[in-house]
Amino acid sequence: MTAVIEARNLSRWYGNVLGISEVTLDIEPGITALLGPNGAGKSTFMKIVTGQLKPNIGQVRIFGQKVWNNREIFWRLGFCPEVDSFYEGLNGLEFLTGLLGLYGFSAPEIQSRAWRALELVELKEVARRPIKSYSRGMRQRIKIAQALAHDPEVLVLDEPLSGLDPLSKRRIIKLIKELRNAGKTIVVSSHVLPEVEAMTSEIVLIHQGKILARGDLHFIRELLDQHPHMIRIKSPHYRELARQLATEDYILNITFEPENSAVTFETHQRDRFFDRLNQLVLESDCRIEEITSPDDNLQAVFDYLVGK
Amino acid sequence: MTTIREKGYHHWDGQFKENFRPSWPIMRAGIKLAFQRKKFKPLFAASFIPAFAYAAGIYISERLEDFKSMGSGLEKFLQINPAFFKSYLTLDFTYFMILLLMSVGGAGLIADDFRHKAIQLYFARPLEKKDYLLGKAGVVAFFVGCLTLLPALILFILKLLFSGSFRLLVEYPWLILSIILFSALVMLFFTAFVLLCSSLTNNRNQAIALMFSLYFLSSILSGVLFLIFRSPYALLLSLKVNLDQVAAGFFLVKPSHDLPWYLSFLVLLAFAAFSYFLVRKKVRSVEVIK
User: Fold this and answer.
1) How many CB atoms lie within 10 A of CB B14?
2) Which is it for strands A202-207 and A30-35: parallel, antiparallel or unpaired?
3) Which of A160, B40, B64, B127 lies 20 to 30 Å from A179 when distance is taken between CA atoms?
4) How high is the pLDDT of residue A26?
5) Across A12-16, A291-295, B89-93, least confident range
6) Does the pLDDT at position A61 exceed 60?
7) CA-CA distance, A282 to A266, in Å (whole number)?
8) Do residues A35 and A298 touch, judged by C-beta distance below 8 A?
9) What average pLDDT does the segment A120-136 reach?
10) Into which CATH architecture does domain A226-305 fall?
11) How many angstroms away from the CA of A166 is the closest CA of chain B?
């Protein structure tokens, strides 16, 4: 399959601070997720891909055309920035029509494209409401609408799920999948693994400006399974739970927190652990107040990958 | 790596509009937004008071016999010559109204884009920096032109109509060119000035304060330096004095100060060039998110 986005040896510094370093990446049609903790270089990469930043070294091409200083490419490219970037006094329709005007479409074409985009992101009903009255989810969707209103083939979405409630997240994930099914090439960034899991299995792990790993989710999972998972359980019966589970061979370590009535298990085999935990809860009537995974975040994944 | 899908995207087969300049929609939007602001319309209307007064002056100058009752000396006062147009184009009131109008409709042109982080949306479109700057400059130039070039040309035509002859045109064939060139300079200066102030902050109120303080402080400072050093060159620091001096040069009238007008012209051009350089730099700098 031909790569739509080709990045070659991209490096970018901000003074002494490294943004990205020697990033070489081919991105094909479908959804590709850039996964990395805050400050990993995801936004820098996206800004270079969208022609807003010039790399110090290297080049990026979209459909074989260079991006930097190439106006033409922006007809085929849509960008949704991480931060809110709109005039809050405008309503959703005005926001979209104003930006569509920059493409030189005729007035009826602008209107029809704006309404089509609003329909796609399910904001038609609130199109004439000022953006300042929009919820976080609506704002995120109007930002996505501006990125796709001119019907680009490539969409670059910087943290599209950031700060959203579960319902809004689900809506946007559904929308992104629909866009993928419509044949678009979509690059999304996130620092939350489960969010990415819900969208795609094609993942690029980026950390400290470098690509650590690239592949599908199973590859990442396999990497992770070489390291113990931490599972913290808060329960009034935390000692009883620990006693029962201590006999299992996949439990590597148990740490008590009497002040919080909690216990933390370390295990290589999370699935077996949860199967047994379910069984215990059903059999012994243990009440569980909270289950969390202290290391089930991206920083922990990266710590494992970089061998910290 | 697993192949997860087939190539399903379609190639864009539209046509890139080479002749389209994205600065036009930016300019149109800026003008529209200015008129939507509170108090802008009455201020804009009030800005034309001098134009009406000057138009009345032209009318009276052609009907002096009918207006004898207004007192003697009218004839001398209402001579329609290059000095008359120079005086219209350098009115303190007009410049003050330009500043006032731009404080409502121009101070936020770039500052608001900074504040709302809209720059990145502009530059993720088929738009170059010069298009963006031209669009923003067009907004200021439009309003300044409305208060200078447009009324001055109308006054010129009114004079021809009321007098029923082309005497003014014959006596001063260069006058129309002077009106156009000097108005263009005023437009260039105020455009550079407003955009500079707007690009130095992301707060429109600060941009407004900057506009007024820079404009008036330049006159105060040059006045103080003039008093200390007794050198007319100190007056080159005053933006208003420079505009007056250049107007005198363009309209071939005696300048108010003992300074060559071309020096003031160079100061204004240098100011515009410096502003352009700085605004361009500022707009670029926000693209870099560290």
Assistant:
1) 10
2) parallel
3) B127
4) 92
5) A291-295
6) yes
7) 22
8) yes
9) 90
10) 2-Layer Sandwich (3.30)
11) 26
Burial state string for A208-235 with b = 16 or more CB within 10 A and e = fewer than 16? ebbbbbbbebebbeebbeeebbbbbbbb
- Range(s) within chain A of domains with CATH label 3.30.70.80: 226-305
Give the residue range(s) of CATH 3.40.50.300 domains in chain A: 5-223
Q: Is B14 on the interface with A (CB under 8 A)?
A: yes
ipTM higher than threshold 0.90: no
Task: Evaluate if residue A219 carries a pLDDT over 80.
Answer: no
Domain range A5-223, CATH class: alpha beta
**pLDDT value at B263 more than 70:** yes
A103/B126 Cβ within 8 A: yes
The answer to whether A39 and A4 have CB atoms below 8 angstroms apart is no
Query: Alpha-carbon distance A122 to A4, whole Å?
Result: 28
pLDDT single digits (tens) B22-68? 888 899 989 998 998 888 999 999 999 999 999 999 998 888 777 76
Interface mutation target, options A54, A67, A102, A157, chain B, most CBs of B under 10 Å: A102
Give φ, ψ of B220 to 5 degrees. Answer: -65, -45
- State whether residue B260 sits within 8 Å of chain A by CB: no
Measured CA to CA, the distance from residue A146 to residue A207 in angstroms comes to 29
Backbone angles phi, psi at B201, to 5 degrees: -150, 165
Q: How far from B148 is each of A181, B47, B234, CA to CA, in Å?
A: 57, 10, 27
Q: Are A59 and A50 in contact (CB under 8 A)?
A: no
Alpha helices in chain B (DSSP H): 23-36, 40-46, 49-62, 74-77, 82-89, 92-105, 108-115, 119-122, 129-147, 149-163, 167-171, 175-199, 204-229, 239-250, 261-285
Q: Which of residues 125-164 of B touch A (CB under 8 A)?
A: 125-128
